[in-house]
Amino acid sequence: MSGYDANRLAALFGRLTEENRGGLGIFITAGDPDPDTSLAILKALPGAGADMIEFGMPFSDPMADGPSIQASSQRALKSGASLARTIEMVRAFRVSDQTTPVILMGYYNPIYTHGVQRFLADAIEAGADGLIIVDLPPEEDADLCLPAVEAGLPFIRLATPTTNDARIPAVLSNTSGFIYYVSITGITGTVAVPTDMVRTAVARLKKHTTLPVAVGFGISSREQAAAVARVADAAIVGSAVVNTIAANLDTEGQAGAGTVAAVVALIKDLAAGVLSARA
Amino acid sequence: MATTAALNTLRAGPDENGHFGIFGGRYVAETLMPLILDVEKSWGAAKADLNFWTELRWYHKHYIGRPSPLYFASRLTEYFGGAKLYFKRDELNHTGAHKINNVMGQALLARRMGKTKIIAETGAGQHGVATATACALFDMECEVFMGAEDVVRQKPNVDRMRLLGAKVHPVTSGSATLKDAMNEALRYWVSKAETHFYIIGTVAGPHPYPQMVRDFQCVIGEETREQLHEAEGRLPDSLVACIGGGSNAMGLFHPFLDDSSVKLYGVEAAGHGIDSGAHAASLAGGRPGVLHGNRTYLLQDDDGQITEAHSISAGLDYPGIGPEHSWLFESGRVNYVSATDTQALEAFALCSRKEGIIPALEPSHALAFVSTIIGDLPKDHLVVMNLCGRGDKDLEAVLPRLEKMDLL
Question: What is the mean predicted confidence (pLDDT) over A4-27?
Fold first, then answer.
């Protein structure tokens, strides 16, 4: 059965607490490098060890992303990606997987163009479990956050090293599911995660909320994933995954037999790191 | 805009959240929000501080060379045979364009905030040169982001920036023009959030930039009002300015928004023609969307992906427009029109030959539009066009085209 299940995210973090481990979130861009390969990767992620999927909605001007995810968006758009197709892929994924949370992550303009109410209805119907919209801070909640809350779809907020104590209440308002802590003051995939500072930052957020805290930006190795999973509820890896896709395309930029396998191998390695973290 | 309605003025915007009607706002990543709030707070304090303005006016007079003349273009007036044409000569400013008006204001604000490292984006390079200039004067570090394509077509300005001590980062992502330079500057700012001040060059971006840049550019319109009163004893009948992001136009128009007798014309770049799809006219050929921190009219496809703009003028080659223009467009107060590459080139040559003034390609678009209406207007009608930049930077791009058009 497809469709929205309000319990998928809560169930995941409940399970992680029971198992006393951090989770592994994996970011891929919908349609990268082409629709079929992307769907094959998406379907392979849970089996390889991904606990949660951040599914990137491609945008022409991703202003919070570094070169890796920019290139990933470009590959997807060149092969015909669109918001409607992204939602189709979520629906196709839900046919075979009813437990792994899928969070739609991206920028506001394609959603605004699609129409907010239509987008929310489509995303919920397809089986998405939450939204992370990079360019919608609490100051612009009226646009999408409040309608999403109204519709029952979690609007997951980003907290950053520049989010001072005065802003934390605003960042924690109107949100559910989990908090996404951006580990660096920067764009995706450019600087290694400072794990010592992450521990302090997660502790600071936990003083204000009972929501789980996932950490992303700058996690690319098994060791870093393990270090973050030790102190946070989940580690999210993105640029390293799309880099692996890029490195396993032929000279024409086409996916081959090894593309999906290479991504699966990376996820297995990261998952082993996360599993060993609190052992 | 409840306040606006209550006061019966078009000049009260934006509201406290930076909205002009549905346009404007603060659509940025959380990392930038605390900084933008800080800029807003500091700008609010500076704006209310008489000393800030006294110092800025000193630089206007002694460094920029303001007031810029309001010049009666008698030869062109005679040539067109209709209304009287005046040029507001902002091309005579230090660094050769209106951009310095805004940059000096923001640089003083940055200094007031204790910031000594500056970043900027630039299209034609005029804003980059102006920023590099202010940074040299105030002993600040300066980094300018410029599309790789613009680095090639505006080489003289790249050389000037380097000479002034700025570091120029060529941006190769996307279409390698102004839009991508702005993306890259925002990305860089996110990574240097605590130490750097971002001097945005036009009336776009997240609040408070559209308002702040407009306030710094309003000196153009305020001087025009005074100078035309001195020359003609009355208000102008029509004001004309070109629009990329729209800062020179906002600066000219804003002081006149409540003078309903004054017709306002904003001229977008039509590139190869609006119907060709290869243009930079966000209002004529776009629809509302969200990019670079604000909601405004954008060139975009059916999926909300931003499309590439085209204009021969690097300064107008941007797929968006300042949010206040979007609001003025929908309210109908300003008439937004357009001129093609070819029309702009003809005006470029015409102005050079008739007035001995080589205009930049950007205001050549404004003059191209003027040439389509002025002949039919009565002789006592007063048109003021903002000649917002000089054309030296464009010679390399323009001369081969003019030769081909048999205009040299």
Answer: 91
Q: What is the pLDDT of residues A102-146, one digit of tens each?
A: 999 999 999 999 999 999 999 999 999 999 999 999 999 999 999
Nearest beta carbon to residue B30 from set A60, A77, A137: A137
Q: Which H, E and C letters describe chain A, residue by residue?
A: CCCCCCHHHHHHHHHHHHCCCCEEEEEEECCCCCHHHHHHHHHHHHHHCCCEEEEECCCCCCCCCCHHHHHHHHHHHHCCCCHHHHHHHHHHHHHHCCCCCEEEEECHHHHHHHCHHHHHHHHHHHCCCEEEECCCCHHHCCCCHHHHHHHCCCECCEECCCCCCCCHHHHHCCCCCCEEEECCCCCCCCCCCCHHHHHHHHHHHHCCCCCCEEEECCCCCHHHHHHHHHHCCEEEECHHHHHHHHHCECCCCCECHHHHHHHHHHHHHHHHHHHHCCC
Residues of A annotated catalytic, as ranges = 54, 65
CATH 3.20.20.70, domain A7-276, yes or no: yes
B28 has a chain A CB within 8 A of its CB: yes
Mean pLDDT of the B159-180 span: 93
Q: Does B183 sit within 8 Å of A140, measured CB to CB?
A: no
CA nearest to A112 within chain B: B289
Q: Which of B17, B30, B183 to mutate against chain A (most A CBs within 10 Å)?
A: B30
Q: Domain locations in chain A?
A: 7-276
Task: Phi first, then psi: give them for residue B120, nearest 5 degrees.
Answer: -155, 155
Chain B contact set for A77 (CB, 8 A) = 305
Give me the CATH code for the B29-60+99-213 domain, please: 3.40.50.1100
- Asked if residue B336 lies in contact with residue B354, where contact means CB atoms within 8 angstroms, the answer is no
**Angle (nearest 5°) at CA A138 between B18 and A154:** 145
CATH classification (class only), B67-96+217-404:
alpha beta
Q: Is A118 on the interface with B (CB under 8 A)?
A: no
Q: Residue A99 corresponds to which tokens in the numbers above? A: 């437990």
Relative to beta strand B84-88, strand B23-27 is: unpaired
By CB neighbour count within 10 A (0-12 exposed, 13-18 middle, 19+ buried), where does B379 fall?
Answer: exposed
pLDDT digits (tens, 9 = 90+) for B211-225: 999 999 999 999 999
Q: Is B29 on the interface with A (CB under 8 A)?
A: yes
**CB proximity under 8 Å: A 15-54 to B:** none
Does residue B157 contact residue B393 with C-beta atoms inside 8 Å?
yes
- State residue A186's pLDDT score: 87
User: Hey, what amino acid is at B42?
Assistant: S
Nearest residue in B to A167, CA atom: B34
Q: Where are the domains of chain B?
A: 29-60+99-213, 67-96+217-404
